[in-house]
């Protein structure tokens, strides 16, 4: 009787193995530095354990610019557009292995598990600055001209095509108010109070009201209440702002597959990068 039970147990074990082995494992990448390369269409994040010649790499195929604005982004791993790789090598790879469009032939990949299920969560911490000299709360969503860009990083807060930095005047603590209506020029859509919006006092329609001057003794028409020539201009000038971003990246409910074998991870912290992007962003708001 004992032999029959043992025989049946062995058969059940073999059948279970034929359906694929599920292994819950822990990766040893705590001391490895998270690195990244690529851009829209192919963002790559990777960690290398040089002691054990293994790597974790994540590709996100989104075409969006993901580092420009503070946000929490989630990506479903699908094995094609967004996927994770766990690899072991004949020797430790370098960053060029992940960042070249065609991976080098060396080192040799010994094992390759593809993550086609799970969630990658990217937390972007971004500092945005329009460099206009106005101290504004980055937590505020105030958008005076309703162009989709909050004032704190809006190059032109009132949408009149005159940059805020130009409109505040020499003293940011006491910004210029040409028509003395209590609203400073940088927030006033009609700076001289002549009932013609500043953006429309642009006779040559070049998106810059500052160079349209009827009376040189007074200055630009948009600051001259005696001139109210109107030219309909419903476009915004090109905006720019500087940004510096950091990220935190982690994965949940990951399933990595290599043939019949699966590796699973309920929670996999991937790491952080303190300065993942630093530069100037240019956009043109749409009305």
Report the sheet-strand fraction: 35-45%
Poorly predicted regions are 1-24
Q: Major sheet: size, sense and barrel closure?
A: 9 strands, mixed
C-alpha end-to-end distance: 83 Å
Whole-number radius of gyration? 29 Å
Instruction: Give the overall form.
Output: elongated
Notes on the protein architecture:
The structure is a single chain. The chain has a domain at 23-127 and 243-283. The chain has helices at 2-18, 95-99, 164-167; strands spanning 21-24, 35-39, 42-49, 54-60, 71-76, 82-89, 109-129, 239-258, 261-283. Strands 1, 2, 3, 4, 5, 6, 7, 8 and 9 form a nine-stranded mixed β-sheet that branches. The termini are far apart. The protein is elongated. The chain is built from three helices and nine strands, in the order αββββββαβαββ. It is 9% helix and 36% strand. GO terms for molecular function: calcium ion binding. Residues 163-183 are annotated as: Disordered. Keywords: Signal.
Q: What key attributes describe this structure?
A:
disordered N terminus
Question: Summary?
Answer:
This protein has 287 residues and is mainly beta. It has helices at 2-18, 95-99, 164-167; strands spanning 21-24, 35-39, 42-49, 54-60, 71-76, 82-89, 109-129, 239-258, 261-283.
Question: How would you summarize the topology of this molecule?
Answer:
Layout: H1 2-18, E1 21-24, E2 35-39, E3 42-49, E4 54-60, E5 71-76, E6 82-89, H2 95-99, E7 109-129, H3 164-167, E8 239-258, E9 261-283
Parallel strand pairs: 1-9
Antiparallel strand pairs: 2-3, 3-4, 4-6, 5-7, 6-7, 7-8, 8-9
């Amino acid at each position: 009787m004992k032999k029959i039970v043992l025989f049946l147990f062995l058969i059940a074990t073999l059948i279970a193995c034929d359906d694929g082995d599920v292994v819950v494992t822990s990766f040893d990448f705590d001391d490895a530095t998270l690195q990244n390369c690529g851009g829209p269409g192919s963002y790559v994040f990777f960690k290398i354990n040089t002691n054990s010649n293994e790597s974790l790499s994540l590709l996100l195929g989104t075409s969006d610019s993901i580092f420009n604005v503070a946000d929490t982004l989630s990506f479903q791993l699908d094995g094609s557009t967004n996927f994770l790789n766990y690899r072991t090598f004949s020797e430790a790879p370098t960053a060029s292995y992940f960042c070249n469009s065609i991976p080098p032939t060396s080192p040799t990949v010994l094992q390759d598990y593809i993550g086609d299920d799970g969630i990658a969560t990217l937390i972007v911490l971004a500092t945005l600055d329009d460099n206009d000299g106005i101290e504004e709360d980055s937590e505020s969503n105030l958008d005076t001209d309703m162009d989709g860009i909050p004032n704190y990083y809006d190059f032109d807060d009132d949408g009149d095509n005159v940059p805020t930095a130009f409109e505040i005047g020499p003293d940011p603590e006491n910004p210029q108010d040409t028509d003395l209506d209590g609203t400073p020029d940088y927030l006033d859509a009609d700076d001289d109070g002549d009932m013609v919006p500043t953006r429309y006092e642009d006779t040559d329609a070049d998106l810059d009201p500052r160079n349209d001057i009827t009376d040189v003794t007074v200055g630009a028409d948009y600051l001259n209440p005696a001139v109210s020539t109107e030219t309909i201009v419903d476009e915004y000038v090109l905006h720019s702002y500087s940004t510096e971003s950091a990220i935190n990246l982690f994965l949940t409910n990951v399933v990595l597959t290599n043939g019949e074998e699966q590796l699973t991870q309920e929670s996999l912290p991937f790491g952080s990068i303190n300065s993942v992007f630093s530069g100037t962003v240019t956009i043109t708001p749409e009305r």
